Protein: CoA-binding domain-containing protein
Amino acid sequence: MLHLSELAARLAQVKTIAVVGAKDVPGRPVDRVGRYLIGRGFKIFPVHPVRRDVWGLPTYARLIDIPEPIDLVDVFRAPQFCAEHAREVLELNPLPAIFWMQSGISNAEARTLLQAAGVFVVEDLCLMIEHQHL
Structure:
């Protein structure tokens, strides 16, 4: 069970966020959330295999291409892709503190892999809505 006080404490430590599946298409949830996070002062690293400029920011093909440590990985991909992204997270050094699967996204394999490595996993919640609540 996710406790809001624990979530608030963890989010208070977050400065850098990788947004996997980043697209700056107006009206899309990923666009609203990405712009919200930028507006709240987080350093955002868009991740998309093809796009090179999302939200006017350098965009990376893969998480491991990001040149700085990441505090939180925010995933906007279908559930069947989450385990692949979890394995990529495990290649990062240092590991991010949080792996966040957006509303409607859950993956047991990703959760198991990351929790075993000490990464805090959130599933099926919107980062923007939870941040606003906190």
Remarks:
- The chain has five helices and seven strands.
